[in-house]
Write a structure and sequence with these properties.
Helix content: 25-40%
CATH superfamily: Phosphatidylinositol (PI) phosphodiesterase
Structural class: alpha/beta
Oligomer: single chain
Strand content: 15-25%
Number of helices: 8
Strand order of the largest sheet: 1-2-4-5-6-7-8-9
CATH topology: TIM Barrel
Shape: globular
Largest sheet: 8 strands, parallel, barrel
Number of strands: 9
Mean pLDDT: 96
Radius of gyration: 17 Å
Distance between the termini: 27 Å
Length: 254
């Protein structure tokens, strides 16, 4: 019997190198322009942040508010997708990207499928919308990747969001994001039937990577931009590395 994609026994299909928010800081984060640039540097997998509009359309944005990375102001979840679609999500970065729009999850999925590329979807709820965001993002991801050879990896810092995702799309693989390795980090990931943990790189070492491996979990990390630190983590047994430095590392085919 083939293991479920939400089981630690499931064959791991993802490459080791993952481009943060599309292309790190070289293009406006979480836009299609960023994914195109990351792909041009040889990256086959990307990390991005997904939240909901007021009318529950999943789209890409890291922050709770629109101020830093768009022409909008205020809490993003307070606007409908029709309102969000009119915003400029590129000019804040540099003039060459002026007019770049915010990106819906379905638009990203279509492009990734065309390019045969992979993704780690971080469920990034607006505070108070953890359960709803987990449900909607997981449901849409299951629909959009139906029939695809490699599903998206769903991750979140929110236990509630991951629990909700598990309920509505139990066969999609999940990863628990960890800024710190609290005492129950391993138990928390296993209780959610995760296939991986994604730890902040200063927290990781050979001992806790081996601990995760012994429990059947892969270990990824964010956000590593220095070659020496990357080399140390690979030597410690790391399985996947999220980076902004898409122009500094050569991901190759591994």
């Amino acid at each position: 019997m083939t293991p479920s994609a939400a089981s630690p026994d499931w064959p791991w299909p993802y490459p080791r190198w993952i481009a943060h928010r599309g292309a790190g800081k070289l293009a406006p984060e979480n836009t299609l322009a960023a994914f195109r640039l990351g792909a041009s540097h040889g990256f086959r997998m990307f990390e991005c942040d997904v939240k909901l509009s007021a009318d529950e359309v999943p789209f890409l944005l890291h922050d709770t508010d629109l101020n830093r990375t768009s022409s909008g102001r205020g809490v993003a979840s307070g606007l409908s997708w029709g309102e969000l679609a009119r915003l400029d999500a590129g000019a804040w970065h540099s003039p060459v990207y002026a007019g770049e729009p915010l990106l819906r999850l379905d638009e990203l999925a279509h492009w990734l499928h065309q390019q045969a590329l992979m993704v780690n979807l971080e469920i990034k709820p607006t505070p108070g919308q953890e359960v709803l965001t987990g449900e909607v993002v997981a449901r849409e991801a299951a629909r959009l990747w139906s029939g695809q050879a490699v599903p998206p990896l769903l991750s979140s810092f929110s236990l509630e969001a991951l629990q909700a995702a598990r309920r509505v799309a139990p066969n999609l693989p999940r990863a628990l994001l960890l800024e710190e390795l609290r005492a129950d980090w391993l138990e928390g990931a296993l209780a959610l039937a995760c296939v991986a943990v994604v730890g902040h790189h200063p927290q990781l070492n050979a001992a806790n990577i081996a601990q995760a491996h012994a429990a059947g979990l892969k270990v990824l990390t964010y956000t590593v931009n220095e070659p020496a630190r990357a080399d140390a983590l690979w030597a410690a047994g790391l399985d996947g590395l999220i980076t902004d430095a898409v122009d500094k590392f050569i991901p190759g085919r591994g």
